[in-house]
Write a structure and sequence with these properties.
The chain is an alpha+beta fold. It has two domains: 81 residues, 2-Layer Sandwich (Phosphorylase Kinase, domain 1), CATH 3.30.200; 135 residues, ATP-grasp fold, B domain (D-amino Acid Aminotransferase, Chain A, domain 1, 2-Layer Sandwich), CATH 3.30.470. It has six helices and 14 strands. Strands 8, 9, 10, 11, 12, 13 and 14 form a seven-stranded antiparallel β-sheet that branches. The longest helix has 24 residues. It is globular. The mean pLDDT is 97. The structure holds thymidine-5'-phosphate (TMP) and aspartic acid (ASP). Thymidine-5'-phosphate (TMP) binds next to β9, α2, β12 and β14.
Amino acid sequence: MSEAPAEIVREDVMHEGKAKIIYLTSATDVLIQYFKDDATAFNGKKKGTIVNKGVCNNDISSHIFSLMEKDDIRTHFIEKLSEREMLVKRVEIIPVEVVVRNVVAGSLAKRMGRETGEVLPEPIVEYYYKDDALGDPMINRNHIRIFHLAKDDEMDHVQKEAYKINDWLKAFFDKIGITLVDYKLEFGRSGDEILLADEISPDGCRLWDKETGDILDKDRFRQDLGKEPETYEEVRRRALSVS
Ligand code: TMP
Ligand code: ASP
């Protein structure tokens, strides 16, 4: 984690996504990531709000990123600025969503005709082309190389990091009584480095309570299970208890 340059001023919107806004700042290599309460699912077909989600996700992500940095996982995180704002290094996002799975659920259950909840003997890493208009189709290393989404050596690094991050995240959630079922990561280029970017929160993870099996993530919203704000708050409470 690097020191925040003094007097960073928020400037124009650089990009507005479904759950976050990225702002330019007075420093060229620094951005502000602002967390909204907006929630979408099924490629934006379902829309809603989860009260205070942005505050929870900023807290959860900031805490996880700062702990990861101590364990030599390089991320774009600089510091938490305010309730909903995180100061991050400017990266060029690699347009590949990296999904890591430890337990069968979601699209994997459907695609392979397997039971939700089957524990995988080793993690599965999958790649999706980050393109909302196309609905984020699944791709492989050949598509990534041939269509110049990323270089092979960059993807070698991303894949290695994904396994390392998975070990780290599984252990983190295990400590707070949560099974890390699956999740999505994004990486970005910053000079010669590749950094973990975006966020790590219940929006992009499947998290199940180890004792009760309760769903503690955005699937509550996707499936209209209710208690969404309380669930995000609960994950925040547990995540922040890890030091
Ligand atoms: P899936 O089962 O729908 O493929 O999703 C796997 C995990 O990745 C799940 O935790 C949700 C997360 N994910 C996102 O957050 N955004 C995405 O665009 C995709 C494809 C997955
Ligand atoms: N891809 C994310 C989801 O399935 C967000 C979205 O579809 O809008 O939840």
